[in-house]
Design goal:
alpha/beta; elongated; TIM Barrel; Beta-Lactamase; eight-stranded mixed barrel; binds ligand C2E; binds calcium ion; Alpha-Beta Plaits; 3 domains
């Protein structure tokens, strides 16, 4: 309660008005009927209403009805209790601007016994906006406006903590080939692509689902109901694979999805996310552009792979557990050996001889293929060169190696160091790797070919190449995949496919090697179909070089005589 006790100073309304006008924040005085008795300049400015229009008037017709109700209830409270009241409230000024204010009101009892209230306003609009913005930032991804990891955690905790739980599914999505787009077309285009994908993801999400960007090219769609998971996954894969028009070009990527469905037992949020991660890993290693549902066996597989990885790291210390076997490739017309393909083996102390199909994928996923591949190249040349037979050595190169900066230089240095002719080295790259290769990777291969190194397309027929994109990459040879060779003479289609592949090779003017030739019948048919080279168990199994050397020497003699 305030007692005015300054006689002589505020003896005129004018001097009182001058005094309150000097206060730099909005101040006003109201009576019990909510009429304005005094309004300072700051208040009139703040309301955007002339002082004369307010004095003697109340709030009605000046402010929205809901605001008036709130203001008046606080006025009444102050008059009835005599206590100061502080209230945060909205205010819409004359121009329609929305403000957020804190109004403090207290009672003034005048000498005559009249009661008034005096109010002071603090404008907190900017503060509240900044707070809201910070809150938004804390729970959203800046680039896409999607929810972020924190929101995902919060939502999952809420769902899983609900006494009547629903059964959500976590779809962990990773874009395939995003890195290439980013590297080749730049970060701005990469950002554009992320935004465009986010838009598509949001369009697929239902009202109760949550679309999240975890960071980079990783997204989550939290499905409130796991019921339609498979259908939604298919839609996401489709959305990711539909070309994006970004940075003035059309870009095609894909996605891999790992799915974990909550089952009541798998309990915590972290467990659910871990399972989605394990499933994603599986989807990727199955060749991307697909989704995988978590199953408990995946955990076991992962455990074994992790062990294998740790042991491989150790074995790469001196490479003594690795060895190379060589398999001849012969001409189909006269059987002359034209090349030997180096195939790596791992003599594992506990598991025995481990097949490359088991450990190469692990080496690729972990990047260990890079040091291993370097050793294979070095070792293959080291073994084959002293034979002095002038036959080629074919070495398999993984997509991961090709992606390494400086790969071409590394290959050229290796052959230069061993003084091995470039024309006798053939790098085998799978058709799928070439199909997915970036521009710079294609340039790497072209650079090597310019130096005389040969390039063969491995496992041909299993990928998606078309004649037109094959023409873009000049290769020296295509190797028709074993699966087709296996079926010729048995499945009518197979003959037609092999014939078409051989024809394709002829059109491109390159050699065609058939892989996995096991029977005389196959050899005969392949020769008829025009295949120029053959490789397979019928001719020779992959063996250590010392074991096939006599045969290679015979060949050389035969050639010489
Ligand atoms: P690939 O490059 O297609 O190698 C040919 C595979 O077919 C070899 O299996 C070989 O043993 C097998 N093979 C050859 N002839 C026949 C046949 O008549 N019948 C049957 N059933 N199989 C035959 P391997 O050595 O187990 O290698 C499997 C795959 O592992 C290779 O397929 C290649 O993709 C990868 N790999 C092997 N060595 C290396 C390497 O040094 N580096 C890289 N990056 N990958 C390698
Ligand atoms: Ca090969
Ligand atoms: Ca092959």
């Amino acid at each position: 309660m305030v007692h005015l006790a300054l006689p002589g100073i505020f003896d005129s309304v004018a001097s009182l008005q001058a005094f309150v006008d000097a206060i730099p924040c909005p101040v006003f005085v109201k009576n019990r009927e909510h009429r304005y008795m005094l309004v300072n300049r700051a208040a009139a400015d703040f309301f955007g209403i002339k002082r004369d229009e307010l004095l003697g008037q109340d709030d009605r017709e000046r402010f929205p009805e809901s605001q008036v109700t709130e203001y008046w209830s606080k006025d009444d409270l102050v008059f009835s209790t005599g206590e100061t009241n502080e209230n945060e409230e909205d205010l819409t000024d004359r121009a329609g601007n929305e403000r957020r204010i804190i109004t403090r009101k207290s009672l003034i009892r005048l000498a005559a016994g009249d009661e008034l209230l005096v109010a002071v306003i603090t404008d907190v609009t900017e503060i509240r906006q900044a707070e809201a913005h910070n809150r938004y930032l804390a729970f959203h991804d800046q680039l896409t406006g999607l929810a972020n990891r924190a929101t995902l955690y919060k939502r999952l905790d809420e769902i899983l903590g609900d006494p009547q739980p629903t059964y959500p599914a976590v779809l962990l999505i990773d874009l395939d080939r995003f890195k290439e787009v980013n590297d080749c077309l730049g970060h701005l285009v990469g950002d554009e692509l992320i935004q465009a994908f986010a838009d598509r993801l949001v369009a697929l999400a239902g009202d109760k689902d949550l679309a999240v960007r975890l960071g980079g090219d990783e997204f989550v769609l939290l499905l409130a109901n796991a019921g339609d998971t498979e259908a939604v996954c298919a839609l996401i894969l489709d959305a990711a694979h539909t070309p994006f028009s970004v940075g003035g070009s059309s870009v095609t990527i894909g996605a891999s999805i790992g799915v974990a469905k909550s089952c009541g037992k798998c309990g915590t949020r972290n467990e659910l996310l871990r399972r989605a991660d394990v499933a994603l890993y599986r989807a990727k290693s199955l060749g991307r552009n697909r989704f995988a549902l978590f199953s408990p066996e995946m955990d076991e597989g992962r455990q074994i792979r992790m062990e294998l990885e740790a042991e491989m790291r150790q074995a790469l210390g001196d490479f003594s557990q690795f060895e190379l076997h060589f398999q001849p490739q012969v001409r189909s017309d006269n059987g002359d050996v034209v090349a030997v393909e180096a195939l790596v083996r791992w003599r594992h102390p506990r598991l025995g001889l481990v097949a490359p199909s088991r450990f190469i994928p692990v080496a690729e996923e972990t990047g260990l293929i890079v040091p291993l591949g370097a050793w294979i190249l070095e070792e293959a040349i080291r073994q084959v060169k002293p034979l002095g037979l002038g036959i080629r050595v074919a070495v398999n190169v993984s997509a991961v190696q090709l992606r390494q900066a400086g790969f071409a230089e590394h290959v050229l240095q290796t052959i230069a160091r061993q003084d091995f002719p470039a024309s006798l080295l053939e790098l085998e790259i799978t058709e799928t790797a070439v199909f997915h290769a970036s521009k710079s990777e294609i340039e790497t291969l072209e650079g090597l070919r310019l130096q005389g190194v040969r390039v063969a397309l491995d496992d041909f027929g299993t990928g998606y190449s078309t004649l037109s994109n094959l023409r873009q990459l000049a290769v020296d040879k295509i190797k028709i995949d074993r699966t087709f060779v296996k079926s010729i003479g048995q499945v009518a289609d197979a003959d037609a496919i092999v014939r078409a592949l051989v024809q394709l090779g002829n059109n491109l003017g390159v050699e065609t090697t058939a892989e996995g030739v096991e029977t005389e019948e196959q050899r005969r048919l392949l020769r008829e179909l025009g295949c120029t080279e053959l490789q397979g168990f019928l001719i020779a199994k992959p063996r250590p070089l010392a074991e096939i050397e006599p045969r290679l020497q015979d060949e050389a003699q035969k050639l010489a005589s």
